[in-house]
Amino acid sequence: MSKPKILICDDELGIRESLKLILEKDYDVSEVMNGQQCLECIKNNDFDLILMDIKMPKASGLEILKRIKSVNPKLKIIMVTGYKSVETAAEAIQAGACDYIVKPFSSKDVLEAIEALLKK
Question: Among 3.40.50.2300, 3.40.50.40, 3.10.180.10, 3.40.50.12780, what is the CATH number of 5-119?
Answer without folding.
Answer: 3.40.50.2300
